[in-house]
Write a structure and sequence with these properties.
282 residues, mainly beta, 5-stranded antiparallel sheet, 18 strands, 14% helix
Length: 282
């Protein structure tokens, strides 16, 4: 049985002028053979030999073999270069002569023409028409067996933003992770490469992340950010720690509790004073 989109060991069952036919058994019928084009046939190859090939479909939608190995096989996740943005989707270079299509419906954000030459995180899958295609919806293809532990620092790629859940991340472009909505600060967007801290490992192996440090470390960093805001606003912040969470997040990219902790640290150091409607540097 042929495995579309995967490497497979097959037998040479027939030689023709334009290549060789491969099958899973010596007496494979014509319906159970796949062509390896002549330019791909290794020198000295003969009937009965076994070859490791990758199976995909040509421009006429026929199953075909190649001795080349693509950058990604079916079910694998990784970065592929954008070759061309067209009106039918985005073509990606995956290491074979024929680029692979990333359909519009499989994009978690619109890809623009000026991104040609850059890379995008995708998985390879078989679509409903039994063709190979790429998708930016990599969730179901990510693994849940990492060796990471709580408080480890990791790197990953953001592949989806959900208003309900937060930012979905592929750690090492392999493992399933999430920055929960409550931990989502700053202008994180799909495609961003991030450094984050592991806050927990779920029972199913999924990873929860935070882009912020442990509280005692983060207070100092947040205090430094507030001091930079004072400099920007001429020594006065036109709101206090009693402002709404929405205002504080918009102005500082911190939660209200984080802002209050940092303000408390600066107040204890005697470098600020809190007025009714503002905070001032002393």
């Amino acid at each position: 049985m042929f495995q579309l989109g995967k490497k497979q060991s097959l037998l040479v069952v027939k030689e023709v002028d334009f290549g060789i036919y491969l099958g899973t058994e010596p007496n494979a019928s014509m319906n159970d053979r796949v062509l390896l084009p002549k330019k791909q046939v290794p020198e000295g190859c003969k009937i009965g030999d076994t070859l490791d090939v990758f199976l995909y479909k040509d421009s006429k939608d026929r199953m075909i073999a190649t001795t080349n190995t693509p950058l990604l096989c079916v079910g694998e996740v990784g970065m592929l270069k954008i070759s061309q943005v067209t009106n039918i989707g985005v073509f990606l270079d995956w290491g074979l002569e024929k680029d692979i299509l990333l359909p519009f419906k499989e994009q978690t954000r619109p890809i623009k023409e000026d991104e040609e030459g850059s890379e995008v995180l995708v998985a390879i899958y078989i679509d409903k028409s039994n063709r190979l295609a790429a998708t930016m919806n990599v969730y179901e293809h990510l693994r849940r067996d990492s060796d990471y532990c709580k408080d480890d620092m990791v790197e990953g790629t953001v592949y989806l933003i959900s208003e309900e859940f937060g930012a979905f991340v592929a750690v090492d472009n392999l493992y399933s992770a999430l920055i929960p909505r409550r931990e989502l600060f700053g202008s994180i967007k799909v495609g961003d490469k991030i450094n984050a801290r592991v806050t927990s490992i779920k029972s199913d192996g999924k990873i929860d992340l935070s882009v912020r440090e442990k509280a005692y470390i983060q207070i100092e960093k947040d205090a430094e950010r507030i001091m930079a805001l004072f400099e920007k606003h001429g020594g006065v912040l036109p709101f206090t720690d009693k402002a709404s969470p929405e205002v504080i997040k918009r102005e500082t990219e911190m939660s209200k509790n984080e802002f209050k902790r940092a303000v408390g640290s600066l107040l204890k150091k005697g470098v600020i004073e809190i007025k009714t409607d503002c905070i001032r540097l002393k």
